[in-house]
From TrEMBL:
Protein name as it appears in the record: PRC-barrel domain-containing protein
Domain spans labelled PRC-barrel: 50-112
Keyword Signal (UniProt): yes
Pfam families documented for this protein: PRC
Xref: Gene3D superfamilies: PRC-barrel domain
Signal peptide from the UniProt entry: 1-23
Record keywords: Signal
Species: Caballeronia sordidicola
Length: 145
């Protein structure tokens, strides 16, 4: 199940890329995604609708946090889920990074086995890196395509 979760998260993350506004016709598109990628997306699901802001529970069904973000590494792999250990009125008070391999989908719920609210709160707080106002061009990355 974890392999399927990781594959689905990657497909969903890649599906969030802006696509051309015209209809995609097999064998005729020059920008965007390939026909094979388009077919794979149809079998996937949306991170925004299925994962973000959804509760994380332990194996006993106890709520231990909420997923606020998914981190996609430069190599396009889904690497971490950012889980809010506690929140009030939708505002996070303590975000932590959880390796995606530790999460599973069981009975339609996002499960982090062995977790408790106290254990999540005890993890170091995750902070986003300070990003420059303008993103770097793709050519500036070592493994650009």
């Amino acid at each position: 199940m974890k392999t399927k979760l990781i594959a689905a998260l990657i497909a969903a993350a890649l599906a969030q890329v802006a696509l051309p506004s015209q209809a995609q016709v097999a064998g005729s598109q020059t920008l965007g995604i390939t026909v094979q990628e388009s077919t794979a997306i149809l079998g996937g699901w949306s991170i925004k609708k299925s994962i973000l802001n959804k509760p994380v529970v332990n194996e006993n069904g106890e709520r231990v946090g909420v997923i606020h973000d998914i981190i996609v590494a430069p190599d396009k792999s889904v690497s971490f889920a950012i889980v809010a250990a506690s929140q009030f009125a939708g505002v996070s008070h303590h975000d932590v990074a959880i390796p995606i391999e530790q999460l599973d989908i069981v009975g339609g719920k996002i499960v982090l086995a062995g977790a408790t609210k106290a254990a999540i709160k005890a993890l170091p707080e995750f902070e986003y890196a300070k990003m420059p106002a303008t993103p770097k061009p793709r050519a500036d990355f070592p493994d650009h395509h």
